[in-house]
Specification:
By secondary structure, the chain is of the alpha+beta class. Helix content is 58%, strand content 6%.
């Protein structure tokens, strides 16, 4: 196991639930003695319920583990020693060749076991954002306790307020701009419906109006919810992205880099700056697709624009989640690694971080063309 492998696994200990990492080992340490953790587990299997689930950008030598070409996979990591992550761990990818056989051999789980279904639900999401993960699991009848999701009441309140502001034109379209704000607030009612786990059913009249099949409409509404969530996340992260870009540009490593390291650092800094800008532009363009479609429905008398958006939403949602997840990962990991009190990274460590950021920001067009393995 290389030093890079040790650092990358040990650093996961610092987070519980993010866009990229679901750290069930930490959830167990902090909540394992509670009734909620025991009575409403994420996974029924004890080993899985103390694992780490990571959205992982596949490397060149990992792509052949899958029958179908993909660029991001869901990695299950079992730490060898949960108390000392520097000891490393074993891992496998959800959906890799021989996945079901390995799950039976390693965990005793048959292909129809509920835990396998939960893993496949996670694998179908572009990221592990706590809100979207919770909602997608609920849609499929899986209701883990709140301790498994790193969601504060303040964040939920802010997001609900944002969604209410965003969808108010739909209320105006239905009731007219002069509707009376009473205790029975129509914006609040519609917001609750959109954010509920039964949103597709609650808004079925809209699906009939748009002439979408029930399953097509239900999936589109979930992705609509995802677009609203990602739009809220991006609005709050714009300032942090700029701060991190500047910090990556100016941070000097601890110790003197070699000439080769100096050249590589300069190249990596510029590559990351350019890719962050490109990723943010692409993300903004995808969100603009939603904005244009919603405006067509609510202001321009073009409901077919929103119908087309809902049909395309699952594909757009996956791409949007991958790109925004990469940005969130860079921001959160940089802040974690350079927090006050932590040592300034050495040249090797800084190069390591920047190399990871470059891989995270690799787009589909730039991306490289089985059993448990040592965690990497």
């Amino acid at each position: 196991m290389t030093d890079r492998t040790i650092r990358s696994l040990a650093n996961l200990r610092g987070s519980a639930s993010t866009a990229r990492v679901l750290n069930l080992s930490r959830v167990h340490r902090e909540h394992g003695d509670t009734d909620a953790w025991r009575d409403q587990p994420m996974f029924r299997n004890p080993m899985l319920n103390r694992s780490m689930i990571v959205k992982h950008r596949l490397r060149r030598d990992e792509i052949d583990r899958f029958r179908f070409r993909r660029y991001v996979a869901t990695k299950i990591i079992l730490p060898i020693d949960a108390g000392d992550l520097r000891a490393g761990g074993r891992y496998l990818f959800v959906g890799e060749a021989g996945f079901e056989t390995t799950m039976t051999q390693a965990f005793g789980l048959q292909p129809d076991h509920p835990d396998i279904q939960t893993l496949r639900i996670m694998d179908g999401l572009p990221g592990l954002d706590p809100f979207l993960l919770r909602e997608q699991l609920r849609r499929n009848g899986v209701t883990p306790a709140p301790c498994y999701f790193n969601l504060s009441e303040a964040d939920l309140g802010a997001m609900i307020a944002f969604v209410a502001e965003e969808i108010s034109p739909l209320v105006d379209l239905s009731l007219g701009p002069d509707w009376d704000l009473t205790a029975d607030n129509p914006v609040a009612r519609l917001t609750d419906k959109i954010l509920s786990s039964s949103a597709g059913e609650d808004l079925s009249a809209l699906g009939l109006t748009l002439r979408l099949a029930p399953e097509e409409y239900e999936e589109g509404v979930f992705c609509w919810k995802g677009f609203l969530y990602y739009k809220w996340v991006l609005r709050g992260a714009v300032g942090e992205i700029g701060d991190v870009m500047e910090a990556v540009r100016v941070t000097k490593p601890r110790g003197r880099p070699t000439n080769q390291q100096y050249v590589t650092l300069a190249r990596s800094r510029e590559t990351i700056r350019r890719r962050i800008i490109d990723t943010c532009d692409t993300t903004a363009n995808m969100l603009r697709v939603y904005d244009d479609a919603f405006r067509g429905l609510t202001q321009e008398g073009r409901p077919t624009a929103f119908r087309d958006f809902l049909r395309d939403a699952p594909h757009l949602f996956a791409k949007l989640g991958e790109r925004l997840g990469a940005i969130q990962h860079i921001v959160s990991f940089w802040k974690y690694r350079t927090a006050p009190g932590k040592p300034v990274p050495t040249p090797d460590e800084l190069l390591d971080m920047l190399a990871d950021f470059e891989v995270s920001l690799t787009g589909r067009d730039d991306a490289p063309t089985g059993s448990f393995s040592l965690a990497a």
